[in-house]
Design brief:
The two termini are about 35 Å apart. The protein has one domain. The radius of gyration is 18 Å and the shape is globular. α1 packs antiparallel against α9, α2 runs antiparallel to α8 and α4 crosses α7. By secondary structure, the chain is mainly α.
Length: about 270
């Protein structure tokens, strides 16, 4: 997912964040529809509502995130965005120890936000926060979608709804350049790497794992994003940035492990 996000930034100058986001969701929706062939006529009202809800969330989450990474480094954006999943985990518990994890996360965000006073874009931080709210909502809705559908066809429907939602803003910013073969090729690659593959795997994971276990695995996202930004885009990771990322990762790991302990392995 993070390699795809890094690649996405390479076509921002051609079609903008909105156009790139449209290409990502559109290509992913085509791939998922071909793979899972949703039968629209047989869907119940609940299935339609959940698919529509997830589609709107996906559109809002990806659009705000792409506009965020057009302004601030990838690792920073994902770390701030991670407050969404972290908040979902903390909200599931009322124990005092969770205040420690919240404090760690706040310290991490504070360390990263220091960049605002050194030329970083405050709007980028706000957009990453919006994406975080949408990411937390995505996890909740995605889990319910997995219960409502026996296969992954619901995700294909949701992705298509998200694509239709983004059409006006995506076309307005990208225009005819959206059909350029070079740009289109990158957009398709980003859609497969950042949406089709990870969202499908996450849906399957949420059917099989506790939310705690899922949260532990997702905790590495900020660190992976920082690494992807450094390797693919040559973005600099300062010592303060690394500290902020580590604090948020530690907070997420602690919250996930203490709220929903990992199941013991039996031989």
């Amino acid at each position: 997912m993070q390699i795809g996000a890094a690649w996405a930034t390479t076509i921002f100058h051609d079609v903008g964040p909105s156009g790139t986001c449209l290409l990502r969701l559109a290509s992913a929706s085509v791939v998922l529809s071909v793979l899972f062939r949703p039968r629209l006529g047989g869907l119940s009202r609940r299935q339609w509502l959940l698919a529509a809800a997830l589609g709107l969330v996906l559109a809002a989450m990806n659009l705000s995130f792409y506009h965020a990474i057009s302004r601030i480094p990838l690792g920073t954006a994902v770390t701030i965005e991670f407050i969404g999943p972290l908040a979902v985990a903390i909200a599931g518990s009322r124990r005092r120890r969770d205040l420690l994890w919240a404090a760690l996360a706040a310290a991490g965000i504070l360390a990263l936000s220091n960049g605002i006073t050194h030329g970083a874009d405050a709007t980028g931080f706000i957009l990453a926060g919006v994406a975080g709210v949408m990411w937390g909502t995505y996890i909740l809705v995605q889990a319910r979608l997995g219960e409502a559908f026996d296969d992954n066809s619901g995700l294909a429907v949701a992705m298509t709804i998200g694509t239709v939602t983004l059409l006006p803003v995506g076309v307005a910013q990208g225009g005819g350049t959206l059909l350029d073969l070079g740009v289109l090729g990158v957009g398709v690659a980003v859609g497969i790497l950042s949406s089709a593959i990870p969202y499908t795997l996450e849906l399957e994971a949420l059917r099989r794992l506790s939310t705690g276990t899922f949260g532990v695995l997702m905790s590495l996202e900020p660190a992976v994003a920082a690494l992807a930004g450094a390797v693919v885009l040559a973005q600099t990771i300062t010592l303060r940035d690394a500290l902020g990322i580590c604090l948020v990762v530690a907070a997420s790991l602690g919250t996930s492990l203490t709220t929903n302990p990992l199941p013991e392995l039996t031989g």
